[in-house]
Amino acid sequence: MIASVREQFPILHQEINGHPLVYLDNAATSQKPQVVIDAVKRYYEWENSNVHRGVHTLGSRATDAYEGAREKVARFINAESSEQIIFTRGTTTALNLVASSYARSVCGPGDEIVLTEMEHHSNLIPWQQAALAVGATLKYIPLQPDGSIRVEDVEAIVTERTKVVAIAYVSNVMGIVHPVKQIAEIAHRHGAVVVVDGAQSTPHMKVDVQDLDCDFYALSGHKMCAPTGIGALYGKKALLESMEPIEFGGEMINDVGLYESNWKELPWKFEGGTPIIAGAVGLGAAIDFLEEIGMDAIEQHETQLAAYAMNRMSEIEGITIYGPRERKVGLVTFNLGDVHPHDVATVLDAQGIAIRAGHHCCQPLMRWLKVSSTARASFYLYNTEEDVDRLVSALIQTKEYFGDAT
Ligand code: PMP
Question: Is 225 labeled as catalytic in the residue annotation?
Answer without folding.
Answer: no
